[in-house]
Amino acid sequence: MDFLKNIDFGELFGKLKDLLGKIDWGDLWNKVKPAMNKVLDFLKKSPSMFVAFTVFLTLLADPIAGNTGSARLANEEVRTLIDASFMNKGLTNDGKYYYTSGAISFAKYTALAKYEIDTLKRVKYKVFPVNWDLIKQGYDNIGGLSYYDGKIYAAMESKSGKAAPCIAVFDAESLSYETSYDLPASWFPQGITWVAVNQASGILYTCSWPAADTIHAFKIDATMAHIEEIDIYGSETLDRICGGEFYHGVLYLSQDVIGDNEKNVLIVDLDEKTADLWFTRDCGRAECVAGDITAFHKADGSLFHVSDYNGIIGVYLRSYSVI
Q1: Using one digit for the tens of pLDDT, what is the confidence trace for 191-238?
Q2: At a CB cut-off of 8 Å and minimum separation 6, what does 29 contact?
Q3: Torsions phi, psi for 127 (to 5 deg)
Q4: Stronger pLDDT, 226 or 5, i.e. the higher one
Q5: Can you give the residue ranges of every domain in the chain?
Q6: Greatest CA separation found in the chain?
Q7: What are the residue ranges of helices labelled H in the chain?
Q8: 69-322 belongs to which homologous superfamily?
Q9: Alpha-carbon distance 297 to 74, whole Å?
Q10: Nearest 10 degrees: CA dihedral of 296, 300, 306, 308?
């Protein structure tokens, strides 16, 4: 303890006082208050103080997302740790429930979950729902999702690059695996990350990762027959598309933009073969990864809902209305 004799505590406390005096406490509180309010709202739904603390740290680490000139952020829900592992990849809905997928690649962990849309209460989940034969082939991610006729269609991803592109099918009620369809590797050399089913036609669409100028269409039947190859033009390219969903027969795509806190949602006219910017959305930080998208009209006026991953431990389910 002799080293304490060499410390000038008067000088130390003086420097500490000067440091504290330079802090704009009003500005700091303005930054902390939104996170505190979200944590308090979260505590109303969950008794876990530890989870609430991780929510607080996640929100504090991320600048608050907001509106853009083309979209209003109507609502934002944050999930961390185990909750985040259920929803850091895919998102779709059937009008009553959200269906989500999650993955932890290094652990070969995959998950599916089902949430009430209005309350975001998780009503069912299944970990390691993928058939073991697919896991042995190298599939370690359940990617983008799309609901159709009581089934969940999922883009299966292989981070190792060893497995061919694949679409897996799960039962929406039980979240149990049913079957899968291999896709030609020559069309999707680095796999697929999203699928979207047109409810009116029963046709599934996807494109290659990370960049594409063609969307492929498959008829949902016993063979997942390939029926069309659509060359896409327009103002936007199909770069880093992380999710897709149809709404009233129109295809919308979630696009991740590297190095920018604003991410894009594209609108695709399959008849005109064009892809254009529909709106941009503020994700709060450039490191945030844009996730899958789904569409459903909620009471708050929002229509588009996107599940984003902040690259640490947090997943944000954000709802937007287009301005």
Answers
A1: 999 999 999 999 999 999 999 999 999 999 999 999 999 999 999 999
A2: none
A3: -95, 150
A4: 226
A5: 69-322
A6: 82
A7: 9-21, 25-45, 49-61, 81-85, 132-137
A8: Glycosyl hydrolase domain; family 43 (2.115.10.20)
A9: 12
A10: -160
